[in-house]
Write a structure and sequence with these properties.
The protein has helices spanning about 20-30, 30-35, 45-55, 105-120, 135-145, 165-174; strands at about 5, 10-15, 65-70, 75-85, 90-95, 125-130, 150-155, 160-165. The protein is of the alpha+beta class. The two termini are about 25 Å apart.
């Protein structure tokens, strides 16, 4: 079982089945889904089935997912985690948050803590990320946590902006 993680403002805990409705509602927000579902809005019933399977199973097979909450309120804001990037053999850092948290440093703060855990505890090397080429907010988070742009790569059926950081680069910078 993965541990709870803390930052200055945030509490990260393993996600659980009672997070299901939050995840579905967040994915149904058109602003959240703008770059996640470029071919149209997701179907709520499908989202419920997908997220129920993920939360109630041992997904991801490598890595972990944490629900991200304010440390003092324990109110869920989104999630951040490490998981396989399709069948590439690479581990991806990913996150998703309520629009009310955007621009408040939540994604960066949680991603820094998860990245640290991934390099130090899991010893992943490298850790990568992909994002829609027009998603400048997500790309800014990835740059802030030290991932470097590697051009476009084809993943999840799209040409996506690819970012990566080696374990050695991370550990020597700390």
């Amino acid at each position: 079982m993965q541990p709870d993680l803390e930052t200055r403002r945030l509490h990260l805990r393993p996600w659980r089945l009672d997070d299901l409705e939050f995840c579905v509602a967040m994915n149904m927000d058109p602003d959240v889904g703008r770059y996640l579902f470029p071919h149209g809005a997701p179907v709520e019933a499908e989202q419920r089935e997908i997220w129920h399977e993920k939360i109630s199973s041992d997904w991801p097979p490598l890595g972990a997912i944490w629900a991200v909450e304010w440390a003092d309120e324990r109110k869920i804001l989104g999630w951040c985690g490490l998981f396989p990037l399709e069948a590439s053999g690479l581990i991806e850092i990913g996150y998703r948050y309520l629009t009310a948290t955007w621009g408040k440093g939540v994604a960066t703060e949680a991603a820094m803590r998860v990245l640290d855990y991934g390099f130090r505890e899991f010893a992943f090397d490298p850790i990568v990320a992909v994002t829609h080429p027009e998603n400048s907010g997500s790309q800014q988070v990835l740059r802030k946590i030290g991932l470097k742009s590697g051009g476009l790569q084809y993943h999840y059926g799209l040409d996506l902006s690819f970012f990566s950081r080696s374990r050695d680069d991370y550990l020597t910078s700390q």
